[in-house]
Design goal:
Blueprint: H1 3-7, E1 9-10, E2 17-18, H2 24-34, H3 42-51, H4 53-61, H5 71-88, H6 94-107, H7 115-132, H8 134-140, H9 142-152, H10 161-185, H11 192-211, H12 217-252
Antiparallel strand pairs: 1-2
Helix pairs in contact: 3-4, 4-11, 5-8, 5-10, 6-7, 7-8, 7-12, 9-10, 9-12, 10-11, 11-12
Length: 253
């Protein structure tokens, strides 16, 4: 048996060995420390993202990261939460309305025999999947959103692209959290998911304003709005290219 598997992980700094076996207690301790901890877990970070978003982003960019969950782990966890709640709590809402609209738009197109019918069927399936997995689509487009924000804040915020990826990861996790609240409440309050989406958009812009205190609030707000517009335009182009590729593949077949 390899020594690392027998004795556990060795700290490269102090040389101490963590010999705890990975069992249910180990997993429970990890969840308690990394997820539910009120000092540095995911819940702690999400609460501060809602209450003081500028502080979380500013601290993390400045290197004061010990009290916060890692942005990638935070992003993936909140995206999974949206998917889970959307599966467990079916109903009407923003994602369901998006799905119905996509189905209606695709189905309204005239369908010619053979290839055109196959293309429409594939596009309908693509629209259904995208609507049911909107959080995953958003997650995949985070690099594009980071690029759009970097372009919008050009010369105003001296952040490199990896730093903008970090900022965007925090902001997207914040959006996923508000989506989750909207999904959880959509069976209680009419249009709860729609209001949560609007709140997420407003809090996204507010968070950008608070994250760049050196800029006038109106400047940060305008640049944030431009960044979102660039992101939506880029996402539309990306979706259009996917649709075009599907049509070309079907036509070639």
């Amino acid at each position: 048996m390899p020594r690392s598997m027998d004795m556990g992980a060795v700290c490269p700094q102090c040389g101490k060995v963590d010999g705890q076996r990975i069992d249910w207690r180990f997993i429970g301790d990890a969840l308690r420390q990394d997820v539910f901890s009120l000092e540095h877990g995911i819940v702690h970070t999400l609460v501060w993202l809602l209450l003081r978003p500028g502080r979380v982003i500013g601290d993390y960019l400045a290197g004061r990261r010990a009290g916060y969950a890692k942005p990638l782990w935070l992003l993936v966890s909140t995206a999974a939460l949206v998917v889970l709640l959307n599966r467990l709590l079916p109903g009407t809402g923003t994602m369901a309305d998006f799905n119905a609209g996509a189905q209606a738009a695709i189905g309204a197109q005239p369908a010619a025999p053979d290839n055109a019918e196959r293309a429409v069927a594939l596009l309908r399936g693509l629209g259904t999947w995208a609507a049911a997995n909107l959080s995953i689509v958003t997650l995949l487009l985070v690099p594009l959103e980071a690029a759009a924000l970097k372009l919008a804040f050009w010369r105003a915020a001296r952040l490199n692209y990896p730093e903008w990826l970090t900022v965007t990861a925090f902001l997207t996790a914040q959006t996923f959290l508000l989506w989750s609240i909207g999904i959880a409440l959509r069976g209680v309050f009419p249009h709860a998911e729609l209001w949560a989406t609007r709140l997420a958009l407003g809090w996204f812009l507010y968070s950008l304003i608070r994250s760049f205190d050196g800029l006038p609030w109106w400047n940060a707000l305008l640049r944030g709005a431009v960044g979102l517009a660039l992101y939506v335009a880029g996402a539309s182009v990306a979706v259009g290219l996917v649709v075009l590729a599907v049509v070309l593949v079907v036509s070639a077949g």
